[in-house]
Amino acid sequence: MAILVTGGTGYIGSHTVVDLLNNGYDVAIVDNLCNSKLEVLNRIYKITSKTPRFYQVDCTNEEAMREVFKKEKITDIIHFAGLKSVGESVKYPELYQFNNVGSSKILLKLMNEFDVKNLVFSSSATVYGIPDHVPLTEDDPVGGCTNPYGQTKLDIEFLLKDYAEQHKEANIAILRYFNPIGAHKSGLIGEDPQGIPNNLMPYVTQVAVHKLNHLNIWGDDYPTIDGTGVRDYIHVLDLASGHLAALRKLSEKPGLVIYNLGTGKGTSVLELVHAFEKANNITIPYVIGPRRDGDVAENYADVSKAEREMGWKAIFNVEDACRDSWNWQSHNPCGYDE
Ligand code: NAD
Ligand code: WQD
Predict the structure, then answer these.
(1) Which of 18, 20, 108, 309 is least enclosed, having the fewest CB within 10 Å?
(2) Contact status, residue 14 vs residue 240, Cβ threshold 8 Å
(3) Does residue 262's CB lie within 6 angstroms of at least one atom of ligand 2?
(4) Cα 214 to Cα 161, 217, 220, 287, 337, distances in angstroms
């Protein structure tokens, strides 16, 4: 009886796999390694003394995926696999549709064929588009996505809703993540972006490790506490535990459910930088630049539904995440490419 984790060697996937293994789940990973490294499996073993079964398979390859479904007795799927770079998606929108939406269609087809009932899907706060208020609840309108990546998440959410309508036995948890940061306490696994990071925390840690000169803060004239953008930064360990909570929820056969996974607390760019400096006793040089296209002033979650219905809430704060991100980066200055 296995949990199939697609994208399980990636950033959020690897932390979730560790949590699953530590809680006695039998795990099989499918990943094509387009944005992760095999070394992750060694690190997972170092943390858990367990090795998940691993298939280097592309989720858009229906035949290869069918072979995995034949070999494994899958009860539940956690579908992390996907491309996630906003900038790249603007350049290659068809690739994002093909990879993200295409792989999800194949997964649903195989779920139906092999009678797998439970699916947890990695969605994103990006589906809310440009919010006209915060905090965001799951009932707030979705749409108006500002980039093709976000549109793929929304398209997949609609596919899942249609599937759940047509397959009353299916149980699907759509998890809308806010801004994941942090790393495992061991410093053995963490976020390992290719090239110059787009996201704030990996950029900050690469400045701290002197791979980059200074941080560019994109705009300080937003109507926020200090003019810089406000986001809901959630520790990746909390996100991981959110997936275990979702699996437990699915065992109650709820049909399709949607949860925000965040902390419910907004933190500005400057607040995050100062928290990092304080937690790690490091100065982060920064320059204020223009606003970045497509950014919103404030975005954070109402997380009461996840607590009410799944008994889950985030336990780590931004300082914990700053300490753990630095622990990972300082011990792995070149990520998994040591
Ligand atoms: P990641 O890139 O570290 O992990 C994704 C994994 O999927 C990688 O290991 C990659 O090799 C694999 N993959 C991609 N396409 C594949 C395919 N066709 N077949 C097999 N494997 C494939 O990203 P992450 O940050 O861990 O994100 C995981 C999921 O969460 C993604 O779906 C992402 O869109 C979503 N998400 C991420 C964030 C974030 O900020 N990190 C926020 C919201 C949602
Ligand atoms: C956070 C804040 C920036 C970098 C993105 C995706 C979203 C989701 C999470 C997947 C903003 C500021 C950033 C820098 C900065 N991913 N910033 N200098 O944009 O909230 O969300 O990742 O689903 O879809 O859009 O995250 O980390 O890029 O930015 O000043 O070098 O940090 O302007 O205010 P974002 P981020």
Answers:
(1) 309
(2) no
(3) no
(4) 44, 9, 16, 7, 23
Beta strands in the chain (DSSP E): 2-6, 27-30, 53-55, 74-79, 118-124, 171-177, 179-181, 215-218, 230-231, 233-235, 256-261, 267-268, 286-289
Ligand 2 atom at minimal distance to the Cα of residue 197: 31
Closest protein CA for atom 1 of ligand 1: 10
Specify whether the CB–CB gap between 332 and 253 falls below 8 A. no
Give the residues across from 268 on adjacent strands. Answer: 230
User: Which of the listed residues 4, 11, 154 should we mutate to test ligand 1's pocket, taking the one with most ligand atoms within 8 A of CB?
Assistant: 11
CB 74 near ligand 2, within 6 Å: no
Confidence of residue 154 (pLDDT cuts 50, 70, 90): very high
Tell me if 292 CB under 6 Å of ligand 2. yes
Counting from 1 in the atom list of ligand 2, the atom nearest the Cα of 296 is 34
Residues 151 and 227: their CA atoms lie apart, in Å, by: 28
Q: Are 156 and 124 in contact (CB under 8 A)?
A: no
Contact 9, 56 (CB under 8 A): no
pLDDT digits (tens, 9 = 90+) for 98-116: 999 999 999 999 999 999 9
The residue to which tokens 């034949």 are assigned: 70
Q: Is 45 a catalytic residue?
A: no
Closest CA to 249 of 173, 137, 138: 173
Mutate to test the pocket of ligand 2, among 231, 232, 293, 325 (most ligand atoms within 8 A of CB): 231
Distance CA 335, CA 211 (A): 12
Residue 142 pLDDT level (bands cut at 50, 70, 90): very high
